[in-house]
TrEMBL record:
The keyword DNA-binding applies. This is LysR family transcriptional regulator. Keywords: DNA-binding, Transcription, Transcription regulation. The keyword Hydrolase does not apply.
Amino acid sequence: MKVLQDFSVFIETARQASITQAANTLAITPAAVSATIKRLEAQFGCALFIRSTRSIRLTPEGQLMLEKCQQAVTAIESGVESVKRDPNQITGHLRLAMPSDLGRNIIIPLLDEFMEVHPELILSIELCDNVVDLYTRPLDASLRYGTPPDSTMVALPISPDNDRIACASPDYLAKYGTPTHPSELVNHNCINFITLVKYHTKWRFTKQGEMCEVIATGNRFANDGDAVRRWMISGKGIGYKSRIDSIPDIENGSLVPLFEDWQGDAIPLNLVVTDKRQLTPALYLLRDFLRERLSR
């Protein structure tokens, strides 16, 4: 970088107060040092040094430019070091959106682990079960279930094989019985998820080419996935949720999976950005981290 080289010559000449000594330190010729100083003086439009037969010293303008050049060189060198830094060491502000249940109960603890490895990272999250507009919100990426409706978006797979699963609490099943076929859901209280534009009451299941679609009815609806989960755990009905969201509650006995020989709707989990140019090292590392953790 020519400007950086010229500034370095100027700084060293000022430090040595000698063109010859500066040339020796920089391993260049005195003529090259003199040419650099003259070039800078022409660019700045002022004399940088007062020259005598024995020494040189800075002019007032030269002293001012020395301070500015030192600041510029420090900033450029710092920037170069940042670019050359170990790609596994990330800094900056990462802003993410994610569904409420997934975020509160699954992702936030994982993000805490991620930030222990990358302590210089700053994190902001938005929990929302409606699709967040990445074009208008100040966000870097969004964790989303399903394929993005906008084909221009970039989706990095996190859990491509994720699907929905019907579950209920042991208390609910003890009180109302355990359905053995999806069609029996019509005889049960189903807890449904809603968004701004849709009631998600169609529960679909497939098994060896056979499909069973049920219109789930019940006395509870929520636009928050965590609210649906809490009702399920407290025995208020059967829910139809993401397998990723449900696994911890199944493992600790709070929920019981139903129709295990059937598969629910596919809802792959992706890390979504609006443009490939937004895929920073931090997002790639986060993608890899979440894929590894959620595949366990």
